[in-house]
Amino acid sequence: MIRRRVLENWGWYSNVVITVRESGVITARYGMHNLITTVGLSLARDAILGTDSFEITEVAIGDVNTAPTVGDTALGNERLRIEIIDKSILDADTALTTAYVAPFEANTWTTEEIGWFGGPLTTY
Question: Which range marks the domain in which residue 64 is found?
Answer without folding.
Answer: 35-117
